[in-house]
Amino acid sequence: MKVNATNSNQYLNNANQAKTAGEKALSNIAATRALSGVDGADMIIADSLLSQSNVLNQGIANANDAIGMLNIADSTLSNLTQSADRLNELSVRANNPALSDREQVMLRNEAQALTDSMNQSVANASFNGKNVFGGNMEFYTSSSSQNINLDQNSITGAISSLDINSQQSIQDFMSSINSMRADIGASQNALVENITNSLTQSVALRQAESGMRNDDVAVNMADKNQADMNLNAAILAQSHNANNLKLQLDRLLA
Length: 254
Description:
Elements: H1 5-30, H2 40-94, H3 101-124, E1 126-127, E2 130-131, E3 134-140, E4 145-151, H4 152-160, H5 167-211, H6 217-253
Antiparallel strand pairs: 1-2, 3-4
């Protein structure tokens, strides 16, 4: 004979539900990525959002490397310009007929030392072990690429043509260097703009992916505590129900 079997089953169901809820909360806390959904579509969407964000972040890293590389190139070219300024001064002085032969030789020796130093600066300008004047370079970011031509041979060739007896050669050199620096500045501005756009997109993608997750520790701990309370209540109710059943059976059998 069954007495209050329905209530007994209900208490058991409540206990099982509370236990399941507690286990889910613990699983969300422990999971690397606890997704709200349970079907494959949610997982595909979340993975796609995360993948897109990772690609953008790698593109940002590439752009930052490119900017660092171009900073070194621009700094080197700036030093070349300063040396060319000094050569221009020497050129004006060297074209003074009042100078002695000995003084002319001293000026030429200084000019030679300057050009040697300029060549050395170009040869030593490197980023991550690679010379920054490597010819045509294409920097790939997440959504685009940036091209710039920084050819070491063209720079060293221009340096070798410098002559303190020809101010025109010095002025032509400075003009070409300034043009190259302008290209570097334009490329850096484009890369900075790319970084800004990529950061905005990456944050939006991360927020969208985060919105699909259930990994808020505080929320999950509250859910776990509530599940424990529900489980304890179900157990107490079941115990109380069992005592009532025993009393009813005792009366029936008395």
